[in-house]
Amino acid sequence: MVRKAYQVLSVCFAVLCGMSTMVFGWQDASNPTLRPGLDEITEGRVTATISFLASDELAGRATGSAEFNIAAKYVATRFRGAGLDGSIADGDFYHVTMKQMVKTPSGPVKLLGPDLQSIAHFGILAAGAELFSYDGKIRPIDLASELPKSGLDGVVGGMMTGYAKGARSMSQVVRMTNTLKDAGAKALLLGITEDSDLIGLAREAQEKPRTQSPRSGFAIPVLLVPEIALSAASIQLDIPGAVMSESPMRNVIGLLPGTDPELSKEAILFSAHLDHLGTKPNAGDEIYNGADDDASGVTGVLMLADAFAKMPKPKRSLLFMTFWGEESGLLGSKQFVETPAWPLDKIRANVNIEMIGRPEPGARNKIWMTGWQESDLGVIMNTASLPFGIEIFNHPKHSAMLYRSSDNWSFAQKGVIAHSFSAGSLHSDYHQPDDEWDRLEIPHMTRVIQGLFVASLPLAYGESTPTKSK
Ligand SMILES: [Zn+2]
Q1: How confident is the model over 287-342, as pLDDT tens digits?
Q2: What is the tens place of the pLDDT at every residue in 61-71?
Q3: 413 C-alpha to center of ligand 1: Å?
Q4: Residue 294 Cα, ligand 1 centroid: separation in angstroms?
Q5: Is there a contact between 289 and 435 (Cβ–Cβ < 8 Å)?
Q6: Which residues are CB-contacts of 426 (< 8 A; sequence separation ≥ 6)?
Q7: What is the DSSP secondary-structure string of 384-421?
Q8: Domains (ranges, CATH) in the chain?
Q9: For residues 217 and 177, what is the distance between their CA atoms, to the nearest angstrom?
């Protein structure tokens, strides 16, 4: 019954839109023409892919980390396996930029009390560009209250209490250093106790130098010290300068070339961000696995690449890409649109996939598209997917709100029709260590990826061309 109703609807749309050449007949999911693609997208393959991408071994895929680079290599390997062309960027599926990173020195730090006894410290949380030397008093600061706006000088010290767990915690310390610098402070000694929330971070700093982006923004050097150090009347302090280094940041991109002489110059771009938040010192689980955000989207991109590669060659070219640095401000996609490996005015649509693993209650088999009003892409894709049993819709709350929140926005700002597609919810594990792959609804996610595949057929085979509103 339901399928019949859809069939009628589909015919109406086809007539209205002049889509008389629906070669694949996607109103019928059992159409054998679709099978080679659909058969690639199975629950087993989805599970295999996401359970690796969101594994503890990949340590939350932080931009700049060794584990992120392993994840990028995995994506490139999968693109190669699907038979995509990796030569459009640097020849090896990577679209690379060098980015300056700060490596905090591991020492030696000199911290001497008034009797010239060496005081043990936990390590450096942030260092300045140059050696910081100081000989004088420690100015005690109550870090839990409002910080002074002026009148500071030299080294200030205080206990770190009320350090909130979760994604925003480090930015609190960063903000604090900015306020203290404006007030005149030159360095901060942060007192840590064994039961402090920061003890994990302190131990980490003790063991190995930290690497971070210069954007992380500590305004003054920060040394993690035991509480006892703060009671020294005066100190001698030397903190070595941070080491700046260049690290490669990798977008991963593969091409499935189109066959039509004209339409093959145009591309449909399928994308998702590969990075997540990495690890943070917490009392419990320290790994932010980012299964839903956005290993689920990356899994979608990989499955779509496999599926389209098994189909008759598309008329339009298809690009498949993952980004670095989304969580740090859409950095990878911004880099791509500044140095595009494909002319932006020849990208007909960007289908960016974000969080498709955990449906809102009652929203299985439904996909919402951000920025619904900006183009007719949602209508085109829904017309194709609805007969298949997947609805693509305008979410009353999220569609407008989240249009500017993911990598599609970097493309939209350059005039590309670019939207994010989500089949999820802003659940309580969002940006938390519990965003684990075994909390996803794999059957839902698999079905959604199949739906995105079916929805994209009219774009790939040149039967529909989205247009911007207005
Ligand atoms: Zn995301």
Answers
A1: 899 999 999 999 999 999 999 999 999 999 999 999 999 988 899 999 999 999 99
A2: 998 889 999 99
A3: 18
A4: 5
A5: yes
A6: 398
A7: HHGGGT-EEE--TTHHHHTTTSSTHHHHHTTT--EEEE
A8: 2-100+247-460 (3.40.630.10), 105-241 (3.50.30)
A9: 9
